[in-house]
Design brief:
Layout: E1 4-5, E2 10-14, E3 19-24, H1 29-44, E4 53-56, E5 60-64, H2 72-83, E6 96-103, H3 111-118, H4 122-130, E7 134-140, E8 145-149, E9 164-167, E10 171-175, E11 178-181, E12 186-188, E13 191-195, E14 222-227, H5 230-236
Parallel strand pairs: 6-14
Antiparallel strand pairs: 1-2, 2-3, 3-5, 4-5, 6-13, 7-8, 7-14, 8-11, 9-12, 10-11, 10-13
Length: 247
């Protein structure tokens, strides 16, 4: 496979024998992110080839294909045609999910530490976390964790020097200038500040509508956190995570 560069600031290069890495260049990170996710959505609709799948991140798309049915050069050509397509300006679909959070204590063992790092009170940290809708930029491991923009702390939050071997499902954590919602128990080096009682992982086919996802959200959705006490947390334990205006 050859390496091509399109006229729309998109770099396409081989990533093994059955994948391509498509990187979008640009000064505006929001414009780059939106282009990445529009491209991934177009590829995943199956219009260009049924064996192609795309995994978007912040500024790049991993495009996987079956080399027995198509070639990397053919997929590159398809992507170049998308570059000039009229739907490049279409919006990334977005819904809102309200997420109750029990902050601090066993549910958020790093909350006070984070408050010290950012130079704010615990109450102010919670206020900042809950002050805005957080855009889900991409899904990460494990199990499609929601990687979102972080709170407006003013400074990045360092990760743990030694990651925890187990963080519980529903953990709400921060690191750098990002936040993450963890659907399952897993190791993590992020700073856990709270936990949601909602059930996130779906194994019964009831994940995001119109997809085979095991989680009820997708990149482009927005999350709004709100604090709850222990009693409310217990009452909501196990309730499925849903969009704000669900049926």
């Amino acid at each position: 496979m050859t390496v091509m560069r399109t006229t729309a600031k998109i770099d396409i290069s081989p990533c093994g024998d059955a994948a391509l890495r498509v990187t979008v260049d640009g000064d505006d990170t929001d414009v780059v992110w939106a282009a990445v996710h529009r491209l991934a959505g177009w590829l995943n609709r199956g219009d260009i080839h049924p064996t192609v799948s795309a995994v978007p991140t912040y500024d790049a798309v991993l495009v996987e294909f079956d080399p027995y049915h198509t070639t990397g050069d053919a997929i590159m050509s398809y992507i170049r045609s998308w570059d000039a397509a009229p739907d490049v300006a279409s919006a990334v679909p977005s819904g809102v999910i309200d997420v109750p959070v029990l902050f601090g204590g066993d549910a958020g063992p790093d909350l006070e530490w984070v408050a010290g790092v950012v130079g704010a009170s615990v109450a102010e940290v919670v206020r900042l976390v809950c002050a805005k809708e957080h855009l889900i930029r991409c899904l990460g491991g494990p199990a499609a964790s929601a990687m979102t923009d972080g709170p407006e702390f003013g400074v990045p939050v360092p990760r743990l020097a030694t990651p925890r071997l187990r963080v519980p499902p529903g953990a709400i954590s921060v690191a750098g200038r990002q936040a993450v919602i963890g659907p399952v128990a897993a190791p993590s080096g992020w700073r856990q500040i709270g936990r949601t009682p909602l059930t996130i992982l779906r194994t019964d086919g009831s994940g995001h509508t119109g997809s085979d996802s095991v989680v009820p959200y997708r990149p482009g959705d927005r999350v709004r956190f709100f604090p709850v006490d222990e009693g409310t947390y217990a009452a909501l334990l196990g309730v499925p995570m849903r969009y704000r205006n669900h049926d």
